[in-house]
Amino acid sequence: MEKPNQGLDDATSQQDHTLATLLTNEQRDLNQREADIAIRSVRPTQPELIAKRLCSVRGYLYAAKSYLQQFGNLPSIAELNKANFIDTEKPGRLMTLLNSQGFSLTRKNFPVISNSHIVQWELVKQGMAISATAEEIGDNEPLVKRVVISNLSLITMDL
Questions:
Q1: DSSP letter at 88?
Q2: What's the average model confidence in pLDDT over 22-31?
Q3: Which of 91, 95, 112, 135 is the most exposed place for a label (fewest CB within 10 A)?
Q4: Are 147 and 76 in contact (CB under 8 A)?
Q5: Dihedral through CA 157, CA 98, CA 75, CA 150, nearest 10?
Q6: In terms of DSSP H, where are the helices of the chain?
Q7: What span, in angstroms and rounded, lies between the C-alpha atoms of 104 and 101?
Q8: In 3D, which of 64, 65, 45 has the Cα closest to residue 122?
């Protein structure tokens, strides 16, 4: 029977091999060999790169149950306009997306900006703010709850 980390053990036991991971939301130049393999939610702009759609991922807004208590069970967009959100960049794709859906968010609603989804998610779980994540992650985390808003289009990304 194979151990759970057998592949990692095999890869790192070779003296001439190094396993390096770089987790970032920043676009890397694959032509410069900054990465051998990349999973992206946007199509590459370099025509010589080969892209293959792996799947579609649906995303929703999530917040810690403790954070959502201040807004009630089914918060309205007007109530959520007073909430804190976390985004990956300034002025922010999430802010732009939500404002296109009827929100009236400003930079003041985004007290935390982080290019690390791991950091964002930990802050959401700690009750600091609301952010978007894949339903497979959000729906399986007991500390958080999906923010349900009627008529809000879900976020879909192709990977």
A1: S
A2: 60
A3: 91
A4: no
A5: -60
A6: 6-13, 65-68, 77-80, 93-100, 117-125, 135-138
A7: 9
A8: 64
Q: Which helix or strand (DSSP H or E) is residue 134 part of?
A: strand 131-134
Q: Could you tell me if 42 and 25 are in contact, meaning their C-beta atoms sit under 8 angstroms apart? A: no
Non-local CB neighbours of 141 within 8 Å, separated by 6+ positions: 62, 125
pLDDT digits (tens, 9 = 90+) for 72-109: 878 899 999 999 999 887 668 899 999 999 999 999 99
Q: How far apart are CA 53 and CA 43, in angstroms?
A: 9
Phi and psi, residue 146, nearest 5°: -70, 135
- Is there a contact between 110 and 99 (Cβ–Cβ < 8 Å)? no
Would you call 97 exposed, middle or buried from its count of C-beta atoms within 10 A (0-12, 13-18, 19+)? middle
